[in-house]
Amino acid sequence: MADWAIWVVVAGALLVGELLTLDLTLVMFSLAALVGAAVAVLGVDVAWQIVGFVVAAGGFGLGLRPVARRHLQRGPELRTGTEALLGEQALVVEQVSGDGGRVKIKGEVWSARSYPTTTVLEVGSQAHVLRIDGATAIVHRFEI
User: How does the protein's chain sit in the membrane according to the entry (predicted)?
Assistant: First the structure.
């Protein structure tokens, strides 16, 4: 079998291995094997084919793999709407109890209820948003 064909078979086997691991390591070796196949097509000796493979594997592993991994990894989860208010600090602008009250969260005034419902938060005190229930913020006393 021709040298280039052996390199292509090796590249294919490495790609199959990559599909099983999904680590972006074997795909770099597979690309390097294709470089070895290209060198073999040029009619160069086997020793130079191996040198081409090793240099390409190092280049792909150190240069391309980190970039590919960075693009494949997700960024931080984006919270929007009322979900973005969870855990935020709130300033009590009207006494808050289990029956109701008002707080300011991120510059907006919200109706609020305290948790636990027996807690009363006085005007000017700080609270944390536990959840948003419809248009009402459920808050609890802010403790440092």
Answer: Multi-pass membrane protein
Tell me: pLDDT of 113 over 70.
Answer: yes
Percent with pLDDT over 70 in the chain: 99
Tens of pLDDT, residue by residue over 49-58, are 999 999 999 9
> pTM for this one?
0.53
CA distance 127 to 101: 12
Cα angle, residue 48 at apex, residues 53 and 62 outer, rounded to 5°: 30
Q: Residues for the chain: how many in total?
A: 144
Residue 144 has a pLDDT of: 60
User: Which pair of tokens denotes residue 50?
Assistant: 């191996």
DSSP codes of every residue in 47-103: HHHHHHHHHHHHHIIIIIHHHHHHHHS--PPPP-GGGGGTT-EEEEEEEEETTEEEE
Structural domains for the chain: 3-72 (no CATH), 81-141 (2.40.50.140)
